[in-house]
Design a protein that fits this description.
about 900 residues; six-stranded mixed β-sheet; 31 strands; 28 helices; Rossmann fold; single chain; about 15% strand; alpha/beta; TIM Barrel
């Protein structure tokens, strides 16, 4: 990051710490943020990441710059980070090829030697570089290293070796990107004359920082004249460099905007990412006899021994006190043995002892720890680099639990206290061994319990026996193949009456569904996301319902949509089409035979995508729009293997503008809500997901609700949606199912939100409370009443909300027994949320009924959602 060179810029954790993070999506986010900051200051190339495997603890220069000691872990982190960089329009440069990790010499000061066999190098040093090349990454830096197994010439650095640069990197490994030397002013390459010439002859494209530029250029020119280096080769390298400058956008944006630069670099989102990175790296190294988690108990006294400067662990002590009574002790350096004995005796009187270490140099405390082996459980917390614990090896080896926090930042201390009581998750894994105490990969997951005790239903007017019908219906749906798994939550008067999970992620052999698992909400996004944002903006008098949306979205001016009002869109009676297949604009129409779709299966149309629609999957995307790897322009991730050009947003806007408007009658329209999502971003002056996070999700404590969930969660925490055999050609897990939203970048007004049934229910409880929950107001009562009670004159639809159809119950999505004032929404993936104000009832059902087959309609045919809702009413005791 910038902080390596520029003061006052955000400081990220070192790579060795980041290597402990199990969620590589966070590493990708880190790369994206570094790219954003680099672009802000006019940098298009970042000489990162370090791809060296640091298996030598005496390495004086790589060390914590490496992601760790495990070649596969290093490769995964390198690729995730570099994808983030390149997705943000900055070229990544993996270094120091062919591998600087197992050396005890700094190439800035001398020439390190890699005395290893080729077989050993293939399995360790070269592994991350080979994987980076396969991943299609764009830059590589060759280090100053002596590698006898590849370059037999004694003393010739790899950066000047044609065997290494051209032979190994280019010809054998197939690297086609930009090849840089390490700085040629370093002593590892000193003593070699005309280093720039020799580096170019070796196969490098760019030479960095030679000592005497004038002499170096002269040597290159003379070599061209003598035929030692061809003019064509120089021109080829020059064209290659210019091509990368063009691809990285230097032509379009050659200047830096200085005004407001500091504020753009150090944003609240940046600080939040740094917090999440530091917290995700916390690693539980030991947990004998399952001492963790501790049990919150104010009657229980915990002894806290603080080792370090006064005040350094104050945040931890305060957070610990929230869960238990704490008696604090401080260990002073070089204490007399009599005082040590007294302190050990005082600590031994407590059933639980927590030692919080914030001091890296523990030599002056060794006399205490040498004899500190109490019978009572001791938990060590190191708010320091891991190697500090080697200074008190004996004490640590006898510990009941050891937690490595890496730093004494306040966010880390706070999270560590929460982890001790299972109020937060720790799933870090050690990236580098800590001497002989803990090997690489050590780590124990500590997580909040996924089950919570619920009140007796009778306390809130339900019959427990009748509520069991919910289980019967939900399990019947699984048995009949309506969905592989689901979640059901029922609230009454704000209290949880039902909170259950059924089935599995995707059928037999896949994980069981837990209440904390995350689902794609599909169109339930409209009311759980977009509409919330609109209501807040309406509260703030940013628009009126009768306003024309073209007043805010200029691309609609001068079109047949110029007079559409916001109210008409909310009622789904604007004349806009139900949907538009935007993705067809990205498909090369010359790449397949016949038509893309057919009404029956045949030799070309082999994938069923609708009741009577079959598709031809043998097409190719237009390369200007879709790429298999991220580039400076292909920054929108559609799935694991496809990246969309950010310019496609303009194509979609033009398609909306050009699609003819229809008669203004009731037609449910995703396109209308796409426009409303754009309206939110225009009025809020920020991305919709950021606005919702700031105004609702974060202050409401909704930790598992949001868009683009793979930025924060592992795939294993997200239920898969469909197996997309037509468009994206992979199982979608963590990527939005809805194609329109996907091509809008995963954050659309119509879809894109992911959450759990618990957290969705909390949103609707807030609406049921007329905008307030837990003593905090989010929306005014007037706005809540307006949006939740108004109904169209020509349909059952409200202002964004769906309603019961009291004229024909078969036409609605709600159980016929629900009161007339009920409001909510459903989603294509098999979701719904309904609020009944008359009975103070919230009902949420989440499933992935499209897994694995999007054409599966059994959920609707069996009326599962409606039958569960009816069962809730039947179980409700009459007043």
């Amino acid at each position: 990051g910038l902080a390596m060179r520029l003061r006052g810029t955000p400081s990220f954790p070192r790579n060795m710490i980041l290597g402990c993070i199990t969620d590589n999506q966070l590493i990708y986010e880190y790369g994206s943020e570094v790219a954003r900051q680099c672009r802000q200051i006019g940098v298009q190339v970042n000489f990162a990441p370090v791809a060296d495997v640091n298996i030598n603890p005496k390495n004086p220069v790589i060390n914590t710059r490496s992601f760790g000691e495990d070649p596969k872990l290093v490769a995964d982190k390198v690729i995730a980070y570099a994808y983030g960089l390149e997705g943000g329009g900055v070229l990544s440069v993996c270094k120091h090829f062919p591998g600087h990790g197992d050396t005890d010499v700094d190439s800035h000061k001398a020439l390190p030697v890699l005395p290893f066999t080729r077989e050993r190098m293939d399995s360790v040093e070269l592994y991350p570089f080979r994987q980076a090349i396969r991943a299609g990454l764009g830059g590589m830096m060759v280090g100053h290293l002596q590698v006898p197994a590849i370059e037999p010439a004694s003393g010739l650095p790899s950066s000047l070796s044609r065997n290494v640069v051209q032979g190994l990197l280019t010809d054998e490994l197939g690297f086609k990107g930009l090849k840089f030397t390490d700085a040629l002013a370093m002593k590892g390459v000193a003593g070699n004359g005309s280093v720039s010439l020799r580096a170019l002859q070796a196969g490098n494209d760019m030479v960095l920082a030679p000592r005497n530029l004038k002499d170096e250029i002269a040597a290159v020119m003379q070599a061209i004249e003598k035929g030692q280096l061809s003019k064509e080769e120089i021109e080829s390298k020059c064209r290659k460099v210019l091509t990368y400058k063009y691809v990285l956008g230097l032509k379009e944006k050659p200047f830096v905007q200085l005004s407001g630069l500091a504020q753009r670099i150090d944003r609240p989102q940046t600080r939040d990412l740094i917090r999440r990175l530091n917290q995700a790296a916390i690693t539980v190294l030991n947990n004998k006899n399952h001492i963790l988690p501790l049990h919150p108990d104010k009657e229980q006294t915990i002894a806290l021994l603080e080792v370090g400067k006064p005040g350094e662990t104050e945040v931890f002590a305060k957070q610990l006190s929230a869960y238990a009574s704490v008696v604090r002790f401080r260990l002073r350096p070089n204490q007399p043995e009599a005082e040590n004995r007294r302190l050990r005796g005082l600590l031994a009187a407590h059933k639980r002892i927590v030692v919080a270490v914030s001091e890296q140099r523990l030599g002056t405390y060794q006399s205490f720890f040498a004899k500190f082996v109490p019978d009572n459980p001791v938990i060590y917390l190191f708010f320091t680099p891991g190697k500090a614990m080697l200074q008190v090896r004996k004490a640590v080896s006898h510990a009941s639990a050891v937690v490595l926090g890496h730093s004494h930042l306040g966010d880390v201390q706070r999270r560590t206290a929460d982890i001790l009581f299972a109020k937060a998750t720790a799933d870090g894994r050690l990236s580098a061994s800590v001497g002989d105490l803990f090997p690489t990969g050590t780590g124990i997951t500590v997580a909040p319990k996924k089950t919570a005790s619920l009140p007796v239903p009778e306390e809130y007017g339900f019959s427990s026996s009748l509520l069991r019908a919910i289980d019967t219906i939900a399990l019947d749906g699984i048995r009949q193949g309506a969905y592989p798994g689901c979640q059901v939550v029922v609230l009454r008067n704000g209290h949880t009456v039902v909170d259950k999970a059924f089935g599995t992620y995707a059928g037999k052999g896949t994980p069981r569904v837990e209440s904390t698992d995350i689902y794609d909400l599909a169109s339930l996004t409209k009311t759980t996301g977009t509409l919330l944002a609109l209501m807040k903006l309406y509260d703030n008098k940013r628009f009126a319902l009768t306003d024309k949306i073209s007043d805010y979205l200029s691309f609609l001016k001068g079109t047949d949509k110029k007079d559409i009002t916001i109210e008409e869109i909310l009622y789904h009676q604007s004349g806009l089409p139900s949907w538009i297949p935007f993705y067809q604009e990205a498909i090369d129409k010359e790449s397949y035979e016949g038509r893309l779709f057919g009404v029956r299966r045949d030799a070309c149309h082999t994938v069923r995508i609708g009741a009577s629609t079959w598709a031809n999957p043998k097409f190719k995307f237009k390369r200007e729009y879709i790429s298999p790897v991220p580039t400076g322009n292909h920054t929108i991730r559609l799935c694991d293997s496809l990246w969309l050009n950010r310019s496609f947003r303009k194509v979609m806007e033009e398609k909306i503008a050009d699609t003819p408007l229809r008669q203004k009658r009731y037609v449910y329209s995703d396109i209308g809500f796409i426009l409303l999502g754009m309206l939110v971003e225009q009025l809020a002056d920020m991305p919709m997901e950021a606005y919702l996070q700031r105004e609702f999700y974060a202050p409401m404590g909704l930790e598992r609700t949001g868009y683009l969930p793979l930025r924060r969660f592992a795939k294993s925490e997200i239920a898969p949606s469909c197996k997309d055999r037509f468009l994206r050609k992979e199982t979608l897990q963590g990527y939005v199912h809805d194609e329109i939203c996907a091509f809008f970048g995963g954050v659309g007004g119509n879809a894109g939100l992911f959450s759990t049934a618990r957290e969705v229910a909390r949103v609707y409880q807030m609406l049921l409370n007329n905008g307030e929950i837990d003593g905090k107001r989010y929306l005014s009562e007037e706005t809540c009443r307006l949006f939740t009670t108004e109904v169209s004159k020509i349909s059952r639809r409200g202002l964004g909300f769906d309603k019961p159809d009291k004229t024909d119950a078969k036409k609605g999505n709600c159980a016929s027994v629900a009161s007339a004032g009920t409001y909510g929404h459903t989603g294509f993936t098999g979701t719904c949320a309904w609020v009944d104000p008359a009975n103070e009832l919230v009902y949420v059902f989440l499933s992935n009924r499209v897994c694995p087959d999007v054409t599966n309609r059994k959920l609707m045919q069996l009326h599962i959602r409606e039958r569960i809702q009816e069962a809730i009413y039947k179980a409700m005791k009459k007043k």
